[in-house]
């Protein structure tokens, strides 16, 4: 998406967000899974919307870590994630939460879920 300035009253600036939405292919080779995802939706939301469950589903807001993935290739944008679930070192290694990732190109991903033992007390809910 691109922000464009519009002309408004002196001293005021408005931003208009372009509504260009693209569609990308998300591939999970280890599970022989592929699905489409729009640039305006998270990987997890696209997967759920298409009735697919190749990834675990938890809280859906970046707090539980159940939908952890490693992005092996492709461009994306990520929203903030719980550092208790994705450390800065994890993030540097390409690990993200599928519920917080918006694709900007086709993506090749791999599931990297936290084990139930490492989740501790989370706010996950069943899918």
Structure description:
The protein has three helices and nine strands, in the order E-E-E-E-H-E-E-H-E-E-E-H. The chain is α+β, with helices and mostly antiparallel strands. The strands form three sheets. Strands 4-3-9-5-7 form a five-stranded mixed beta sheet. A two-stranded antiparallel ribbon has the order 1-2. A hairpin with a 7-residue loop joins strand 1 (about 5) and strand 2 (about 15). The chain is globular and about 30 Å long.
- Write the CATH architecture name: Roll
Structural class: alpha+beta
β-strand percent reads 25-35%
- Ranges with pLDDT <50 over ≥5 residues? 1-9, 13-17, 116-127
Largest sheet: 5 strands, mixed
- Find the count of extended strands (DSSP E, 2+ residues): 9
Note the overall shape. globular
CATH superfamily label: Beta-grasp domain
Q: Summarize this, please?
A:
By secondary structure, the chain is an alpha+beta fold. It has helices at residues 43-49, 88-92, 116-119, and strands at residues 3-6, 14-17, 23-28, 33-38, 68-73, 76-78, 95-97, 101-103, 107-111.
Question: Which terms summarize this structure?
Answer:
disordered N terminus, globular, 3 helices, alpha+beta, Ubiquitin-like (UB roll), 127 residues
Describe the protein's topology.
Layout: E1 3-6, E2 14-17, E3 23-28, E4 33-38, H1 43-49, E5 68-73, E6 76-78, H2 88-92, E7 95-97, E8 101-103, E9 107-111, H3 116-119
Parallel strand pairs: 3-9
Antiparallel strand pairs: 1-2, 3-4, 5-7, 5-9, 6-8
